[in-house]
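Ops channel
N.P.: pipeline sanity check, posting one input/output pair.
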């Protein structure tokens, strides 16, 4: 296994904490190829990104796993804020960090986004041509999710209006116009505490984040004013701009979010691929990644 090195870089004035995984000794010589791996919403670098980094570093790739601004060990106030444009800048500045690394080849840098970052990574690559190969696993666009739900049309604009109301109240509290609005718990504290009517897609997430599979330092909380930053964000609409660089979007047959990857690939031009893994849910693609990892090794091996 590659032991990660603590590194940092600046993004929009924030100090971003990251783990750098070097190729495992004896692994294939990839001539300095590297992959930025970005984490899901309400997650951190030690969770699903670390799982993918171990697979890719064993295959000879450098891997850089940052914590998003406002989250994890990175700087930023208010804590827990999900800012799509900060997230995209974090990815682009992670690429800049790798460009400046003596052991990395600047023309062999790819990126991998997991869950919400499966929207941020393509969005970043649409305009950052330094990202030479674009991969996603269990991709979600947070803006589309805010408008249409996690598993397609499961929420209404009424729910979004309520969330935007909380965001507005949170902003007003900065000048004493009302009490501060608390962070939002995205998941129940455990599977046992989950309400009986919890949607299966959120039960799937709980089975990862609130069990030994994924339990870590992340509290799965988000700041309420993130919704007014996410609500009109559209990560995958312009995926055609990634071409002629390659796009691979991985999902599972049981993933409630499969439709995001289908839409993302439909919006792209060649070379592109939708890779669907049998019997895998959304959260399965966080840690049960034997097939997904093998596919990504092949993908980055071919294009980087």
């Amino acid at each position: 296994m590659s032991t990660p090195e603590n590194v940092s870089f600046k993004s929009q004035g924030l100090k971003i904490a990251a783990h750098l995984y070097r190729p495992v000794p004896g692994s294939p010589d990839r001539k300095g190829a590297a992959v930025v791996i970005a984490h899901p919403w309400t997650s951190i670098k030690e969770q699903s990104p670390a799982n993918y980094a171990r697979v890719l570093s064993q295959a000879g790739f450098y891997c850089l796993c940052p914590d998003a601004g406002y989250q994890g060990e990175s700087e930023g106030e208010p804590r827990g804020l999900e800012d799509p444009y900060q997230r995209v800048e974090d990815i682009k500045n992670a690429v800049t960090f790798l460009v400046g690394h003596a052991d990395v080849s600047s023309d062999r840098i790819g990126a991998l986004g997991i869950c919400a970052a499966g929207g941020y990574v393509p969005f970043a690559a649409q305009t950052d041509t330094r990202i030479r190969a674009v991969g996603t696993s269990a991709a979600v666009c947070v803006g589309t999710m805010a408008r249409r739900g996690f598993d397609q049309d499961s929420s209404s604009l009424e729910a979004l209006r309520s969330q935007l109301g909380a965001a507005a109240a949170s902003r007003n509290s900065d000048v004493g116009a009302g009490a501060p609005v608390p962070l939002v718990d995205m998941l129940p504290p455990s599977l046992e505490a989950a309400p009986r009517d919890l949607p299966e897609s959120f039960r799937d997430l709980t089975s990862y984040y609130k069990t030994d599979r994924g339990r870590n330092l992340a509290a799965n909380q988000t700041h309420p004013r993130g919704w007014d930053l996410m609500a009109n964000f559209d990560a995958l609409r312009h995926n055609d701009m990634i071409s002629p660089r390659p796009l691979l979007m991985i999902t599972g047959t049981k993933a409630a979010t499969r439709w995001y990857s289908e839409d993302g690939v439909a919006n792209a031009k060649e070379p592109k691929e939708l890779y669907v893994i049998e019997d895998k849910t959304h959260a399965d693609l966080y840690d049960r990644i034997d097939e997904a990892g093998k596919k990504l090794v092949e993908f980055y091996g071919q294009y980087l």
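N.P.: looks fine end to end. The CA atoms of residues 136 and 190 lie 28 Å apart.
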